[in-house]
Amino acid sequence: MLCNGYTKVWDLAAGELVRLDGARGTTLRVTRGTLWVTQERDVRDIVLQTGDTFTVERGGLTVIEAQGRTTVCVLARHVDEVRMRTRRPSLAARIAGWLGSVGAADRDRRTVPYY
Length: 115
Fold this sequence. Notes:
By secondary structure, the protein is α+β, with helices and mostly antiparallel strands. Helix content is about 15%, strand content about 40%. The protein has a single domain (about 10-110), classed as Sandwich (Jelly Rolls), CATH 2.60.120.10. Strand 4 and strand 5 form a beta hairpin.
């Protein structure tokens, strides 16, 4: 396997974010896809392609985002990670949600008898 010796393997969906707090010294190795990396108080944006390796240089917050389906091997003793999906719901899902709320409002409406 390409990630032998690494402590974690992440399979990330397109647009998925991972927040790493206090990850200085953590090594990231991309085995599939493209990964965008940004570090707290660092003006650079690092873009890693398949086969690239990067070691986090700062102790603050580091955010990575998959630019497509991406697999990342992670070598770290301890890292606090929080995964987040960033994809917006599809247009059809948003319309269905809106129509559902309109229908619910109509059902909840109380009628007053007319004499």
